[in-house]
Amino acid sequence: MIVTTVLGVLVAAALLIASLGAPLVIVSRPVNTDAASRAPALTLPPLPTPSTTTTSSTGPAQGTSSLSAIFGVLLAVLGVAVAVLIISLIVAAIRSAFRRPSLTSHTEATFAAPPVPDELLGGARKRLELLETGEPRNAIVAAWLDLERAAGETGLPRDRAETSTEYTARVIGVWEVDPARLGDLAALYREARFSVHPLDEGHRRRAIDDLAVLHADLERVARAQREATVPDGSGAPS
After folding, report:
1. Dihedrals φ, ψ of 43, to 5°?
2. Top-confidence range, 15-19, 79-83, 189-193, 230-234
3. In sequence order, what are the residues at sequence separation of 6 or more whose Cβ sits closer than 8 angstroms to the Cβ of residue 146?
4. Helical H segments across the chain, by residue range
5. Cα distance between residue 231 and residue 236, in whole Å
6. How far apart are alpha carbons 226 and 203 in whole angstroms?
7. Could you state, in order of their start, the residue ranges of all structural domains in the chain?
8. pLDDT for 172-223, tens place per residue?
9. Which of 49, 142, 190, 226 is the most exposed place for a label (fewest CB within 10 A)?
């Protein structure tokens, strides 16, 4: 009983030492020294030492995966936006192709010219006389200034940005007069008023012809206005 207990203790100790990795020689029974030297000893191989493995961090892999997911979402949103834009353009083009343009006719407003004032008609002879008197430069300036005075007496409003020459030309242009003659007479006045080169009889002749045509046009308009105001007696009983 004691021997069995001792053997059990020895076996347990041997197993414990073997588990710790140290080699152990197990002797089953006493042997001779010579025999022990001749017989090979039983040597238990050491248990393999567990190798230490380093677990790599999954941080970079997880970061790359997150960036890929975000990039994929952005691409999907961009694709949807482009598709919506293309569809909108196609729908707008189709609507524009099938939409018939609506044409609205506009009638130009017509305004009756006011009666030709006596100020413009009454001074016609006086202005021609001014043109035929004195130096051509002074004669042209005097005739135009009298025309400006008559235009101002008509009562038509004057814009703040207008010069007196522009105002006079606009007032006379209210009626059906020759615009070329009116423009030439205004140009002759500016040349006579602000230039330094001499004016000759040719300039005077042009001014007289221009003014005569303008007076004739004003007389014609005034005559037509008077005839339009006369009642038509064709339907009156005889």
Report:
1. -115, 125
2. 189-193
3. 123, 126, 127, 130
4. 2-19, 33-38, 59-98, 118-122, 124-131, 136-152, 164-172, 179-194, 201-229
5. 10
6. 35
7. 2-38, 118-229
8. 999 999 999 999 999 999 999 999 999 999 999 999 999 999 999 999 999 9
9. 49
